[in-house]
Amino acid sequence: MLKLGIDGNDPEMEQQKFAAGCDKIKFDMPGFSYIGILKRVVDDGTLKSLYDSCINGYEKLQVCRLIDHEENIPIIEKFIKQTYHIENEFICQLDPARFDTIPEYVITECDKIVAGSSL
Known about the structure:
By secondary structure, this protein is mostly helical. The chain has helices spanning about 15-30, 35-40, 45-55, 55-65, 75-85, 85-90, 105-115; strands at about 1-5, 10-15.
């Protein structure tokens, strides 16, 4: 069995299934590295750099969601963690890359969260 999470708290997966999944991804994405991707999404410095390179509010919100934080303002918490989930949004929305629909006050709060992350 293989522990997939850096902290060892994620579900275990059989090595054979893990390797098969990675091979399938590598077929479409040569050079794919599960460990490399995992290290990037758990590193606040990398996420902050990614956040700073985002070109619209929707992208910023998605990256902010990855940064471990506690939000004490319920409406902001709802926006960040629930309202704009990508799997729900693409069903019936304007293209978020072309139409920035995230309210500016939500992005302002995301900016504060990213600035206050443990870098």
